[in-house]
Amino acid sequence: MLAAHGFDVVEAVGTGPELERALRSHRPDVSVVDVRMPPTLTDEGLQVSLAVRRDLPGLPILVLSQHVEQLYARELLADGAGAIGYLLKDRVFNADQFIDAVRRVADGGTAMDPEVIAKLVAGNASDPLATLTPREREVLGLMAEGCSNAAIAGRLHFSEGAVGKHTANIFAKLGIVASDDTNRRVLAVLTYLGSP
Length: 196
Hints:
Domain HTH luxR-type: 125-195
InterPro entries: CheY-like_superfamily, NreC/VraR/RcsB-like_REC, Sig_transdc_resp-reg_receiver, Tscrpt_reg_LuxR_C, WalR-like
CATH class of the largest domain: Alpha Beta
Keywords: DNA-binding, Phosphoprotein, Transcription, Transcription regulation
Strand order of the largest sheet: 1-2-3-4
GO molecular function, one term: DNA binding
Oligomer: single chain
Domain Response regulatory: 1-104
């Protein structure tokens, strides 16, 4: 499927150690990784991805999982570097949705499965977003899915300028200031997902 959509597949691996070697040697434009890989068949793919990203910040990785695991999603997003995604494996069957997620991650964005986002939000004990309007929450939810301002405008049927105003309001209400060291969208999404 990836090759049919213009991607060059440089390597396919079957175990955690092979994944680590391939990520470090190829430093691919994007990687699609299963959470569960041999030899442990627990969370080997995720742990290898996290370890490699600690050494190579921002290495684009899209993780696939059979079930929603809140801890996995939080761990993936914790570094705030972007270029990360977490989708349920069922999404692969929708080629357009899957390829869109791969491209977003490759471009440095995020691609979070809507079910993952729903679980994370439902699991939050307190609501740091209480000051946001329903529309601002909707915009932030689409940001959490990895949508650009243009994509949000298209989905919500208003202008990119309106999305920009909502985004600026979100940043202001959440106390997220512009900085060369951080990505405000990622910080807003982390707040949305309830990460520390």
